[in-house]
Design goal:
Blueprint lengths: L8 H5 L12 E3 L2 H7 L5 E5 L5 H10 L3 E6 L13 E5 L2 H5 L7 E6 L5 H14 E10 L13 H11 L3 E7 L7 E6 L2
Parallel strand pairs: 1-7, 2-3, 2-5, 3-4, 5-6
Antiparallel strand pairs: 6-8, 7-8
Helix pairs in contact: 5-6
Length: 187
Amino acid sequence: MGGFKSVDWGRLRNLYIDDKQLENCKVVSSREKILEVLPKNGICAELGVEHGIFSNKILDINKPKKLVLVDIMLKKHLQVEHDVVEPIKGDSVEVMNQFEDNYFDWIYIDTDHTEEQTNKELQVCKNKIKHDGYIGLHDYIRVYDNNYKFGVIESVNNFLIENQDFQIVYLSLEPHMFNTIVLRRNK
């Protein structure tokens, strides 16, 4: 039970989202399946890129007209080369604040997974997506160890509690349980 000692169960009880925000949620088997249902030929961003493996899947499946790739440690050996790609090295929140509101069809967040950073990213991204746009977040999971705690669940649930105009539209239920959740404004 080592890692569970740090769980604040009382706080978690206050993070229940409204059932109405789950009414249109579809469960799929992978984040690649989520890409299949996100808008094609649009303007999208991936925050947290690493080597660009998922970026290439976005290019193959979604065929975006523009894909903004943002990472604090954008690798020189990023394995993504395409004329629609705009790689930007920097903090995701600072970079996203440089774009006009209502610009992106969808944004995919896979950065440091801390609650603090994810909160900031959600706050900026809700304004950067179009009114019918999507925000996807990877690693909607409960991970604790002695040194690190993911905060994506807390961030997303708090965001949904505070932003009742958003709902969950997709959740990947993957065998390794590193799930992706996708949010969208109510229509």
